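Reviewer 2 asked us to include a model.

Predict the structure of this chain.
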Amino acid sequence: MKDPIPRDDVRPRFWARVPLKDLTPREWEALCDGCGRCCLNKLEDADTGEIAFTRVACRLLDGETCRCGNYPLRKRLVPECVVLTPQNIGEIAYWMPATCAYRLVYEGRPLERWHPLVSGDPDSVHRAGISVRGWTVPECAVPEEEWEEHIIAEEL
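Predicted model (structure tokens):
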């Protein structure tokens, strides 16, 4: 998750008019609302395929800004980091948070009112209580075998 992209670098309401595969790199990055939910570690049930979100965050997530601490090098520093692209969104959308703009647009649904592209305010995602600000624990503080103890009950 990069820092918010200035709105004048993107086409008006591009998310509602332009297919994901035709977005410019700036428009693609601007879809990120900065919630940090995609950076939560997830557990997948091998039998059912059900995804459970945990409050255990990627070691690169800044819990206050809800942004990646080293976005350009994230894949090198965290090899298991999944880099979302227009080409792989179809395979990955099912484990993205239900509020994720990439998932919403992929599924043909509108962005939420609190999304910074709609509200015009990068802090609206935090004020709406959508971001993970202030309630994650870093993965380095929790052994992987204990992640189940940090499953979030509500669906993200």
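The chain has seven helices and five strands. The first helix runs from residue 14 to 17. We have added this to the supplementary material.
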